[in-house]
Amino acid sequence: MTTKLLCLVTLAALAGSAKAQTADDAEKKLINTLMQHQDVIAVNNVATAEGFVPDNDPNTMQVVILTDPNAKSSVSEDGEVVFLSPGLGPNQQANLTYEAFRRKAKRILAIKIPPPPNP
Predict the structure, then answer these.
(1) The pTM is what?
(2) What is the Cα–Cα distance from 5 to 63, expressed in whole angstroms?
């Protein structure tokens, strides 16, 4: 429930953003589908992105809360992992989460794999 809420809040916050407006229709539709149906898992107590081992499950997105105050926020190339540094504001968190969904959608569209099924 919490993960779906995070996705819906992110979707609502970014629906009117410039990023959402510049994506083509197929990408926007897929991003919306992913946000509504993707399992998002929060991972706590990880010092740095370099020390994290992802689950490599394409059906999940891991949001990793970093503890090292010098750690940098980022998104993995495939959009499967979002790294959030300490003290990051909600808008920055939403932007990084949207970027992860965008990367994931681009990858799906590029290799033409079917999106996750609607429950």
Answers:
(1) 0.74
(2) 14
